Amino acid sequence: MSIKKHLAETLTLIAAAVLCALIANALARSERRLKLPGDYPNALQVPAAAAATPAPAVVTPVPSAVPIATPSTAAPTAVAATAARPAPTAAARPAPPKPDLSRFAPHKDKAYVELHGDDVAALFAGGALFVDARRSQAYREGHVPGARGMSPWEADVDEKVTQLVNEGRDMQQPVVVYCTGGDCEDSHMLSQKLWGVGFENVYVYKDGWPDWQKRGGRVERGQ
Amino acid sequence: MAAALPKIVDPPAFAHMIYNYRLLPGPLVNLAALVLPWIELLGGLALVLGLWRRSATALIGALLLLFIGGISLNLLRGNSIDCGCFDVSAAGKTREERLADMRFVVLRDVGMLLLVAQSLWATRRDEPEPAGLAAPAPVG
Predict the structure, then answer these.
(1) What is the pTM of this model?
(2) pLDDT (average), residues A41-67
């Protein structure tokens, strides 16, 4: 009797909550909306760094940081650990001062390779595509010049990825994805998405946006 | 109710918080991020308005148990997270600071759970409680 009544009341509250949630989500702007169901393949995987020391686990061995006040054509410093030596075809571009990106060879068997600032600066100077995985608001407040904004937490991320694919880009050209560095995983999540749709040369800027700013990299604001 | 509003305003941020708990399968993360804050809000509203008080109290108690369990499990496995209780923006804290916060949150939620238990106990006989028995504040 009483239990049934309480159960009915509780279920009514939950049903009302579900209804309100779905309506609010349907009416929300794309950057505040969630898609259903979620698509997070590693949702049950506890980060390896959780129980261990917080030292960054970076795939690519790189030398100490060098400031990048203006993205320079500084000599490349390291080769992605899993990348094979490239064919020299891509390096022979007419544009004179661009650095040689041939060492950033496609790695289609690996979703992404992590890089630090020096390599990222070289990729920037070489005209690589940059993708900002932070939330739209953070993107508008400042991002790497020319970077495309697409947060894996916002409902329109798949749409933006599809749009990128439909632009007919060369899937073997380097793509650099970044978020806020540290233990931020958004760039890794987005990299996996990009790899999943066919991009074969994706790099995660391990130290991300804070490092870009610290190094004095140029900043673009707005959409 | 205060805990619910920031989550309702920015569901993707709360989804990120839930994801960090590493307890829900991927397809359920967004659904939980959308629905949990509304349960908090409607449960809190029912308490404030004095509607279905025992049911709402029990519901809030169940949420508290859920939060205590989730945070405790992550404490045990050393996964430092921002709890996302009242604020869904990443606080940029160190691992040690986050773990300390998590311990505090568990204690705080246990305290609020005791209030819920007291309220349920006090109202166990009649639906409209005797005067002077206040319901606990809504919690997150």
Answers:
(1) 0.75
(2) 54
DSSP state letter for B86:
S
pLDDT band per the 50, 70, 90 thresholds, residue B68: very high
Residue A95 has pLDDT above 80, yes or no: no
Cα–Cα separations (whole angstroms), residue B52 to A52, B105, B114, B134, B135: 47, 27, 20, 14, 11
Q: B1 vs chain A: nearest CA distance in angstroms?
A: 13
Contact A144, A220 (CB under 8 A): yes
The answer to whether ipTM exceeds 0.90 is: no
Residue B110's contacts (CB-CB under 8 Å, 6 or more residues apart) are B68
The pairs formed by A196-200 with CB atoms below 8 angstroms and a separation of 24 or more are A196/A111, A197/A161, A197/A162, A197/A165, A198/A165, A198/A171, A199/A171, A199/A175, A200/A106, A200/A107, A200/A108, A200/A171, A200/A172
Buried b (16+ CB within 10 A) or exposed e, A33-53: bbbeebbbeebeebbebbeee
Mutation for A interface: B7, B20, B34, most A CBs within 10 A: B34
| Cβ partners under 8 Å of residue A151, min gap 6 | A31, A133, A134, A135, A136, A139, A157, A186, A190, B12
